[in-house]
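This section describes the prediction task in plain terms. A model, or a person checking by hand, is given the sequence of a single protein chain and must write out its three-dimensional structure as a string of C-alpha coordinates. No templates, partner chains or ligands are provided. The sample shown here is typical of the held-out split.
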Amino acid sequence: MKPYTLYGWHLSYFTGKVLCYLRYKQAPFVLQPVNLYTLTQRIKRETGAVVMPVMVTPQGRWIQDSSVIIDHIETLHPAPSIIPGTPVQRFAAYLIEAWGDEWWVPIAMHTRWSHPENYALFEHDAGRALLPHWPGFIQRRAVRFIAQRLRRMLPSVGVRAEQFGVMDAWTEHMLDLLDAHFAQLPFLLGGRPTLADFGLVGTMYGHLGRDPWPARELIAKRAHLRAWLDRMAAPAAPTRGAPLFPDDRIAPTLLPVLRAICTEFLPLIVGINEQVKARLPSLPPGKALPRSLKDVEVPMGSGRFRRAALPYTLWMAQRTLDVWRAMAPPEQAQVRDWLRAIGGERLLTLDIPRLQRQGLRVMPEAGATAPDPA
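The expected answer:
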Protein backbone atom coordinates (compact mmCIF):
# COMPACT_ATOMS: atom_id res chain seq x y z
CA MET A 1 0.00 0.00 0.00
CA LYS A 2 1.28 3.44 -0.88
CA PRO A 3 1.92 5.40 2.33
CA TYR A 4 0.24 8.55 3.50
CA THR A 5 2.37 11.68 3.45
CA LEU A 6 2.22 13.85 6.55
CA TYR A 7 3.54 17.36 6.04
CA GLY A 8 4.59 18.85 9.35
CA TRP A 9 7.33 19.60 11.87
CA HIS A 10 8.19 17.83 15.12
CA LEU A 11 7.95 21.20 16.89
CA SER A 12 4.40 21.80 15.61
CA TYR A 13 1.54 21.50 18.13
CA PHE A 14 -0.89 19.60 15.92
CA THR A 15 1.73 17.68 13.95
CA GLY A 16 2.65 16.00 17.24
CA LYS A 17 -0.95 14.98 17.78
CA VAL A 18 -1.25 13.35 14.35
CA LEU A 19 2.25 11.87 14.43
CA CYS A 20 1.58 10.02 17.70
CA TYR A 21 -1.76 8.84 16.34
CA LEU A 22 -0.35 7.47 13.07
CA ARG A 23 2.38 5.64 14.95
CA TYR A 24 -0.18 4.03 17.23
CA LYS A 25 -2.37 2.96 14.32
CA GLN A 26 0.70 1.65 12.49
CA ALA A 27 -0.67 3.27 9.36
CA PRO A 28 1.96 3.48 6.61
CA PHE A 29 3.10 7.09 6.40
CA VAL A 30 6.07 9.29 5.61
CA LEU A 31 6.73 12.43 7.65
CA GLN A 32 7.74 15.13 5.19
CA PRO A 33 9.20 18.30 6.75
CA VAL A 34 7.42 21.34 5.35
CA ASN A 35 9.65 23.63 3.33
CA LEU A 36 8.86 27.24 2.54
CA TYR A 37 7.43 26.54 -0.92
CA THR A 38 5.20 23.70 0.26
CA LEU A 39 3.92 25.71 3.22
CA THR A 40 3.15 28.96 1.42
CA GLN A 41 2.21 27.66 -2.03
CA ARG A 42 1.18 24.01 -2.27
CA ILE A 43 -0.60 23.70 1.10
CA LYS A 44 -2.32 27.05 0.68
CA ARG A 45 -3.47 26.11 -2.81
CA GLU A 46 -4.82 22.71 -1.72
CA THR A 47 -6.38 23.64 1.65
CA GLY A 48 -6.90 27.41 1.56
CA ALA A 49 -4.62 28.04 4.53
CA VAL A 50 -0.93 28.26 5.41
CA VAL A 51 -1.04 25.56 8.04
CA MET A 52 0.41 22.27 9.23
CA PRO A 53 0.00 19.40 9.53
CA VAL A 54 -1.57 18.37 6.26
CA MET A 55 -1.96 14.77 5.18
CA VAL A 56 -1.99 13.58 1.58
CA THR A 57 -3.72 10.25 1.02
CA PRO A 58 -2.44 7.59 -1.39
CA GLN A 59 -5.19 8.77 -3.74
CA GLY A 60 -3.84 12.33 -3.70
CA ARG A 61 -6.44 13.92 -1.42
CA TRP A 62 -5.13 16.72 0.81
CA ILE A 63 -6.65 16.73 4.32
CA GLN A 64 -6.22 19.64 6.74
CA ASP A 65 -7.07 19.68 10.47
CA SER A 66 -5.80 17.09 12.92
CA SER A 67 -9.30 15.98 13.95
CA VAL A 68 -10.38 15.46 10.35
CA ILE A 69 -7.19 13.52 9.62
CA ILE A 70 -7.90 11.24 12.57
CA ASP A 71 -11.52 10.76 11.50
CA HIS A 72 -10.36 9.78 8.01
CA ILE A 73 -7.87 7.19 9.24
CA GLU A 74 -10.33 5.77 11.81
CA THR A 75 -12.86 5.17 9.04
CA LEU A 76 -10.39 3.26 6.87
CA HIS A 77 -8.39 1.60 9.66
CA PRO A 78 -10.88 1.04 12.51
CA ALA A 79 -8.72 -1.39 14.50
CA PRO A 80 -7.45 -0.67 17.04
CA SER A 81 -10.12 1.96 17.60
CA ILE A 82 -9.30 5.04 19.66
CA ILE A 83 -13.01 5.81 20.15
CA PRO A 84 -14.47 4.28 23.34
CA GLY A 85 -17.47 2.06 22.78
CA THR A 86 -19.44 3.27 25.80
CA PRO A 87 -21.27 6.61 25.98
CA VAL A 88 -19.67 8.42 28.91
CA GLN A 89 -16.11 7.52 27.97
CA ARG A 90 -16.80 8.28 24.30
CA PHE A 91 -18.16 11.74 25.13
CA ALA A 92 -15.32 12.37 27.59
CA ALA A 93 -12.77 11.47 24.91
CA TYR A 94 -14.15 14.06 22.48
CA LEU A 95 -14.46 16.67 25.22
CA ILE A 96 -10.83 16.20 26.26
CA GLU A 97 -9.75 16.35 22.62
CA ALA A 98 -11.45 19.73 22.26
CA TRP A 99 -9.84 20.92 25.51
CA GLY A 100 -6.42 19.75 24.40
CA ASP A 101 -6.76 21.40 20.99
CA GLU A 102 -8.16 24.72 22.15
CA TRP A 103 -7.48 25.45 25.84
CA TRP A 104 -3.80 24.49 25.98
CA VAL A 105 -2.59 26.64 23.07
CA PRO A 106 -1.75 29.69 25.28
CA ILE A 107 0.19 27.46 27.67
CA ALA A 108 2.19 25.90 24.84
CA MET A 109 2.91 29.31 23.29
CA HIS A 110 3.88 30.79 26.67
CA THR A 111 6.23 28.00 27.67
CA ARG A 112 7.96 28.26 24.28
CA TRP A 113 8.20 31.98 23.56
CA SER A 114 8.56 33.38 27.09
CA HIS A 115 11.84 31.48 27.59
CA PRO A 116 14.63 32.53 25.19
CA GLU A 117 16.64 29.34 25.66
CA ASN A 118 14.02 27.51 23.55
CA TYR A 119 14.81 29.56 20.46
CA ALA A 120 17.97 27.68 19.44
CA LEU A 121 16.05 24.43 18.92
CA PHE A 122 13.26 26.25 17.08
CA GLU A 123 15.81 28.01 14.86
CA HIS A 124 17.62 24.76 14.10
CA ASP A 125 14.55 22.67 13.28
CA ALA A 126 12.57 25.33 11.44
CA GLY A 127 15.58 26.54 9.45
CA ARG A 128 16.49 23.09 8.18
CA ALA A 129 12.87 22.38 7.28
CA LEU A 130 12.02 25.70 5.63
CA LEU A 131 15.11 26.03 3.43
CA PRO A 132 16.98 22.73 3.28
CA HIS A 133 20.43 22.92 1.67
CA TRP A 134 20.48 26.73 1.91
CA PRO A 135 23.26 28.54 3.79
CA GLY A 136 22.74 28.88 7.52
CA PHE A 137 22.50 32.66 7.53
CA ILE A 138 19.62 32.53 5.03
CA GLN A 139 17.88 29.82 7.05
CA ARG A 140 18.18 31.95 10.18
CA ARG A 141 16.72 34.96 8.38
CA ALA A 142 13.70 32.92 7.25
CA VAL A 143 13.20 31.58 10.76
CA ARG A 144 13.29 35.09 12.24
CA PHE A 145 10.46 36.08 9.89
CA ILE A 146 8.35 33.08 11.01
CA ALA A 147 9.19 33.68 14.66
CA GLN A 148 8.15 37.33 14.44
CA ARG A 149 4.79 36.32 13.00
CA LEU A 150 4.24 33.79 15.77
CA ARG A 151 5.24 36.26 18.49
CA ARG A 152 2.72 38.78 17.16
CA MET A 153 0.02 36.19 17.85
CA LEU A 154 0.89 35.85 21.53
CA PRO A 155 -1.31 38.64 22.97
CA SER A 156 -4.37 37.44 21.05
CA VAL A 157 -4.17 33.96 22.59
CA GLY A 158 -3.66 35.44 26.06
CA VAL A 159 0.13 35.29 26.42
CA ARG A 160 0.36 38.65 28.15
CA ALA A 161 2.89 39.55 30.84
CA GLU A 162 0.23 40.46 33.39
CA GLN A 163 -1.21 36.93 33.07
CA PHE A 164 2.02 34.96 33.39
CA GLY A 165 1.52 34.32 37.10
CA VAL A 166 -1.96 32.88 36.61
CA MET A 167 -0.81 30.77 33.65
CA ASP A 168 2.24 29.42 35.46
CA ALA A 169 0.28 28.49 38.59
CA TRP A 170 -2.43 26.80 36.51
CA THR A 171 0.12 24.84 34.50
CA GLU A 172 1.95 23.55 37.57
CA HIS A 173 -1.31 22.49 39.21
CA MET A 174 -2.73 20.81 36.09
CA LEU A 175 0.50 18.94 35.39
CA ASP A 176 0.47 17.74 39.01
CA LEU A 177 -3.07 16.41 38.52
CA LEU A 178 -2.09 14.63 35.31
CA ASP A 179 1.05 13.20 36.89
CA ALA A 180 -1.01 11.82 39.78
CA HIS A 181 -3.44 10.25 37.33
CA PHE A 182 -0.72 8.61 35.25
CA ALA A 183 0.76 7.18 38.46
CA GLN A 184 -2.39 5.02 38.58
CA LEU A 185 -3.25 4.42 34.91
CA PRO A 186 -1.12 4.35 31.75
CA PHE A 187 -3.55 6.48 29.73
CA LEU A 188 -6.33 8.98 30.39
CA LEU A 189 -9.27 6.58 30.19
CA GLY A 190 -7.55 3.35 31.17
CA GLY A 191 -5.19 0.78 29.72
CA ARG A 192 -4.93 2.02 26.14
CA PRO A 193 -4.84 5.40 24.40
CA THR A 194 -8.04 7.00 23.15
CA LEU A 195 -8.88 10.20 21.33
CA ALA A 196 -8.52 11.95 24.70
CA ASP A 197 -4.82 11.09 24.85
CA PHE A 198 -4.17 12.22 21.30
CA GLY A 199 -5.98 15.50 22.00
CA LEU A 200 -3.76 16.19 25.00
CA VAL A 201 -0.48 15.03 23.48
CA GLY A 202 -0.38 17.89 20.97
CA THR A 203 0.74 20.40 23.55
CA MET A 204 3.06 17.90 25.22
CA TYR A 205 4.88 16.35 22.24
CA GLY A 206 6.24 19.38 20.41
CA HIS A 207 6.09 22.07 23.09
CA LEU A 208 6.16 21.16 26.80
CA GLY A 209 7.90 17.83 26.32
CA ARG A 210 10.46 18.89 23.72
CA ASP A 211 11.34 22.57 24.16
CA PRO A 212 14.33 22.75 26.55
CA TRP A 213 12.83 24.94 29.29
CA PRO A 214 9.45 23.23 29.83
CA ALA A 215 10.90 19.77 29.22
CA ARG A 216 13.35 20.36 32.06
CA GLU A 217 11.34 22.54 34.44
CA LEU A 218 7.86 21.09 33.98
CA ILE A 219 7.89 17.60 32.49
CA ALA A 220 11.11 15.98 33.76
CA LYS A 221 10.05 16.67 37.35
CA ARG A 222 6.90 14.61 36.85
CA ALA A 223 8.05 11.10 36.07
CA HIS A 224 4.61 9.60 35.44
CA LEU A 225 3.63 12.35 33.01
CA ARG A 226 6.98 11.97 31.25
CA ALA A 227 6.42 8.22 30.97
CA TRP A 228 2.94 8.78 29.47
CA LEU A 229 4.40 11.16 26.89
CA ASP A 230 7.07 8.61 26.00
CA ARG A 231 4.39 5.93 25.60
CA MET A 232 2.45 8.23 23.29
CA ALA A 233 5.50 9.12 21.19
CA ALA A 234 6.61 5.49 20.82
CA PRO A 235 3.50 3.36 21.36
CA ALA A 236 3.89 -0.30 22.20
CA ALA A 237 1.63 -2.88 20.59
CA PRO A 238 0.54 -4.60 23.86
CA THR A 239 -1.48 -1.51 24.91
CA ARG A 240 -3.92 -2.15 22.08
CA GLY A 241 -5.90 -4.86 23.78
CA ALA A 242 -5.83 -3.38 27.25
CA PRO A 243 -9.22 -2.47 28.77
CA LEU A 244 -10.45 0.99 29.58
CA PHE A 245 -11.64 1.87 33.08
CA PRO A 246 -14.51 -0.56 33.87
CA ASP A 247 -18.25 0.01 33.65
CA ASP A 248 -18.05 3.16 31.49
CA ARG A 249 -16.65 5.08 34.46
CA ILE A 250 -13.96 7.74 34.63
CA ALA A 251 -11.08 7.11 37.01
CA PRO A 252 -11.34 9.20 40.20
CA THR A 253 -7.86 10.59 39.52
CA LEU A 254 -9.08 12.16 36.27
CA LEU A 255 -12.20 13.79 37.74
CA PRO A 256 -10.38 16.93 39.00
CA VAL A 257 -9.18 17.52 35.43
CA LEU A 258 -12.68 17.12 34.03
CA ARG A 259 -14.15 19.43 36.65
CA ALA A 260 -11.57 22.04 35.64
CA ILE A 261 -12.67 21.62 32.02
CA CYS A 262 -16.25 22.36 33.10
CA THR A 263 -15.37 25.41 35.22
CA GLU A 264 -12.80 26.93 32.83
CA PHE A 265 -13.11 25.63 29.25
CA LEU A 266 -16.92 25.56 29.20
CA PRO A 267 -17.15 29.31 30.03
CA LEU A 268 -14.74 29.95 27.16
CA ILE A 269 -17.08 28.11 24.78
CA VAL A 270 -20.05 30.05 26.16
CA GLY A 271 -18.28 33.40 25.73
CA ILE A 272 -17.23 32.62 22.16
CA ASN A 273 -20.73 31.43 21.30
CA GLU A 274 -22.24 34.70 22.53
CA GLN A 275 -19.89 36.72 20.34
CA VAL A 276 -20.44 34.52 17.27
CA LYS A 277 -24.24 34.69 17.55
CA ALA A 278 -24.05 38.47 17.88
CA ARG A 279 -21.86 38.63 14.77
CA LEU A 280 -23.85 36.33 12.49
CA PRO A 281 -26.74 38.72 11.58
CA SER A 282 -24.26 41.11 9.94
CA LEU A 283 -22.15 38.40 8.30
CA PRO A 284 -22.60 38.34 4.48
CA PRO A 285 -23.84 35.01 3.08
CA GLY A 286 -21.00 32.64 2.27
CA LYS A 287 -18.52 34.68 4.31
CA ALA A 288 -16.32 33.11 7.00
CA LEU A 289 -16.17 34.55 10.46
CA PRO A 290 -12.97 36.39 11.41
CA ARG A 291 -10.18 34.24 12.77
CA SER A 292 -10.55 35.98 16.14
CA LEU A 293 -13.09 38.25 17.81
CA LYS A 294 -13.03 40.35 20.99
CA ASP A 295 -11.57 39.22 24.29
CA VAL A 296 -13.41 36.81 26.52
CA GLU A 297 -12.58 36.47 30.23
CA VAL A 298 -12.82 33.11 31.99
CA PRO A 299 -11.62 31.43 35.18
CA MET A 300 -8.16 29.88 35.17
CA GLY A 301 -7.37 28.09 38.40
CA SER A 302 -7.77 30.61 41.21
CA GLY A 303 -7.42 33.57 38.85
CA ARG A 304 -8.92 35.05 35.70
CA PHE A 305 -7.67 34.76 32.13
CA ARG A 306 -8.39 36.89 29.06
CA ARG A 307 -7.83 35.98 25.45
CA ALA A 308 -9.37 36.65 22.06
CA ALA A 309 -12.40 34.54 21.21
CA LEU A 310 -11.68 32.07 18.38
CA PRO A 311 -14.82 30.93 16.53
CA TYR A 312 -12.94 27.76 15.52
CA THR A 313 -13.31 26.59 19.12
CA LEU A 314 -17.06 26.37 18.53
CA TRP A 315 -16.50 23.91 15.69
CA MET A 316 -14.66 21.67 18.14
CA ALA A 317 -17.50 22.05 20.65
CA GLN A 318 -20.00 21.24 17.89
CA ARG A 319 -17.95 18.13 17.04
CA THR A 320 -18.25 17.01 20.67
CA LEU A 321 -21.97 17.72 20.90
CA ASP A 322 -22.64 15.88 17.65
CA VAL A 323 -21.29 12.72 19.30
CA TRP A 324 -23.89 13.13 22.06
CA ARG A 325 -26.70 13.86 19.60
CA ALA A 326 -25.91 10.66 17.70
CA MET A 327 -26.45 8.53 20.81
CA ALA A 328 -29.64 6.68 21.65
CA PRO A 329 -31.80 8.41 24.29
CA PRO A 330 -30.73 6.10 27.17
CA GLU A 331 -27.06 6.82 26.37
CA GLN A 332 -27.75 10.54 26.15
CA ALA A 333 -29.28 10.37 29.61
CA GLN A 334 -26.18 8.62 30.95
CA VAL A 335 -23.94 11.37 29.57
CA ARG A 336 -26.24 14.09 30.88
CA ASP A 337 -26.21 12.59 34.37
CA TRP A 338 -22.42 12.31 34.30
CA LEU A 339 -21.99 15.91 33.15
CA ARG A 340 -24.39 17.10 35.83
CA ALA A 341 -22.25 15.36 38.45
CA ILE A 342 -19.08 17.18 37.35
CA GLY A 343 -20.70 20.57 36.71
CA GLY A 344 -20.83 20.47 32.92
CA GLU A 345 -24.47 19.89 32.01
CA ARG A 346 -24.72 23.39 30.54
CA LEU A 347 -22.66 22.20 27.56
CA LEU A 348 -25.63 20.15 26.32
CA THR A 349 -27.93 23.21 26.30
CA LEU A 350 -25.76 25.52 24.20
CA ASP A 351 -27.47 26.71 21.02
CA ILE A 352 -24.32 26.80 18.90
CA PRO A 353 -25.07 27.76 15.28
CA ARG A 354 -24.19 25.01 12.81
CA LEU A 355 -20.70 25.71 11.51
CA GLN A 356 -18.43 24.36 8.84
CA ARG A 357 -14.67 24.69 8.49
CA GLN A 358 -12.97 26.86 5.89
CA GLY A 359 -9.24 26.49 6.36
CA LEU A 360 -8.48 27.95 9.78
CA ARG A 361 -11.83 29.71 9.96
CA VAL A 362 -15.44 28.67 10.32
CA MET A 363 -18.61 29.82 8.65
CA PRO A 364 -22.32 29.05 9.04
CA GLU A 365 -23.49 25.98 7.19
CA ALA A 366 -25.69 26.87 4.24
CA GLY A 367 -29.30 27.12 5.38
CA ALA A 368 -28.43 25.93 8.87
CA THR A 369 -29.99 27.22 12.05
CA ALA A 370 -28.94 26.75 15.63
CA PRO A 371 -30.06 23.40 17.10
CA ASP A 372 -32.77 23.36 19.71
CA PRO A 373 -31.39 23.27 23.25
CA ALA A 374 -31.40 19.82 24.81
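For orientation: The chain has 14 helices and eight strands.
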